[in-house]
Amino acid sequence: MTATTSLIDCHVHLAALPAGDNGCFISPKLLRSPLFRFMLWKHDLSRMQPQEANQRYLDHLLAELRASRHVSKAVLLGMDGFYDRTGLLNRQHTDFLVSNDYVFKTVQAYPDMFLAGPSINPQRKDAIDEVHRCADAGAVLIKALPNAQHFNPADEKYRPFYRALAQRRLFFLSHVGYEFSLIGKDQSLGNPDRLRLALEEGVTVIAAHACSYGLMFYEKFIPTFWELSKRYPNFYADISAITQPHRLKMLLHLRRHPEIQSRLLFGTDYPLSVFHLAAWGRVGLGRLWNMIRTKNRFDRQVEVCKGLNLDFCSLGDMLSDPATHKDNQ
Predict the structure, then answer these.
(1) How many Cβ atoms from other residues are within 10 Å of residue 4's Cβ?
(2) Rounded to an integer, what distance in angstroms lies between the CA atom of residue 20 and that of residue 16?
């Protein structure tokens, strides 16, 4: 395993309420949802004071990241919206938008702690121009959530978009499986098999959540994960949210197959919680107690996965590899 003193978390969400000119957006429906209300309560955030709430969320993230014994940096992820057939943003069908400008502004304020992971829906009219703009601004990857952004990653019309990503050597981090946090009208869009087009164009693809389907004990993407890993050397998956109860089957499967673990990248899906449920009955009591008393989410993710013999790499390894490291100069 990579020395765990300088891991990069490749899957950390930059949450933000609309405030001033930050370009962020949250739909009224999402604001009223129980999950969103719970997140506000958990982080002691107030909808009525958006600027203060945004800074408080960031302060909490920075404090936890700086206190981590294993993780030194995080990729902050943006969230693009829904775009209509003409390629224009449609806020009526957008639940949550964290603008790329806000991502870059935050990263620039804390360059020693964060890397930029802006989000681009390839359906947007200026998608390719946005790829180049983000690459020039120092992005390390592009994030997409097809289920919520309502686009089919396998659509041939997005081939030029993937070619632009490959040209600029930007990794493509795509959600896999069911989407629970945001509204997903077509859950089939989270099928990792739809990422083949990007892989064929030479894009380094990172499938989120270890390719887990995310429905408790039903993991239909296990064969797909193996087939894509065998066929494409540019296919990876992150381990974000893999300790969540509804993804445990994938975690327990992967821990028994060290031959596939070189394709796994460290990630947490912060601000989601990290659970130690999978370790009960599978590790010694001393190790289990260490997991329980580890409150730092970054460190608990490391402890739980290491305790279960789940190996992983760091995004930093890929960024320092001449074969994959992007060169925007």
Answers:
(1) 17
(2) 11
Structural tokens at position 269: 């899906």
Measured CA to CA in angstroms, residue 162 lies from 5, 168, 198, 205 at distances of 33, 10, 5, 10
* Cα–Cα distance, 80 to 50 (Å, whole number): 19
pTM here is 0.94
Q: What is the pLDDT of residue 327?
A: 44
Residue range 174-185, pLDDT digits in tens: 999 877 665 556
> What would you report as the CA-atom Rg of the chain, rounded to the nearest whole angstrom?
19
Instruction: Kindly state the greatest CA–CA separation across the chain.
Output: 58
Return the axis-axis angle of helices 159-167 and 127-136, rounded to nearest 10°.
10
* Alpha-carbon span 73 to 28, nearest angstrom: 33
Angstrom distance (rounded) from CA 284 to CA 15: 37
pLDDT at 46 over 90: no
> Regarding the domain delimited by 7-274+312-319, which CATH topology (the fold level of the hierarchy) does it fall under?
TIM Barrel (3.20.20)
| DSSP at 253 | H
Helix intervals (H) in 119-264: 127-136, 146-149, 159-167, 196-200, 222-231, 248-254
Domain ranges of the chain: 7-274+312-319
